[in-house]
Design a protein that fits this description.
mainly alpha, 33% helix, binds zinc ion
């Protein structure tokens, strides 16, 4: 196994260095504190997407729409969302609200 302190989030790619970067501050968590609950359970895709889009908009000053597109492309390239990729395509963000 690679050094846990050199790992990055399997959901968003965020480099996790400090214990508080890990979900629940547990160094064996594969996900960061943004993408997973303290229990280590991965959050729903829409919540992770919203959190990452908000982060990009805030940190890089992106327009919210651009930030969401960037976050969507990023997440869909990550192993945690391999199955989600078949349903979502970065080129066509669905306008519908799922499970209305
Ligand atoms: Zn993450």
């Amino acid at each position: 196994m690679p050094d846990a302190l050199c790992s990055s989030c399997g959901s968003c790619g965020f480099p996790m260095r400090a214990p508080e970067d890990f979900a629940g501050s547990r160094l064996d968590s594969p996900y960061c504190s943004t993408c997973a609950r303290p229990s280590g359970q991965l959050l729903p895709f829409d919540e992770v997407l919203a959190a990452n889009a908000a982060y990009l908009a805030r940190e890089q000053g992106l327009h919210p729409d651009a930030a969401e597109r960037m976050a969507l492309a990023l997440l869909l390239s990550m192993p945690a969302w391999r199955d989600t990729r078949a349903e979502r395509h970065p080129a066509s963000i669905p306008a519908r609200r799922p499970g209305s």
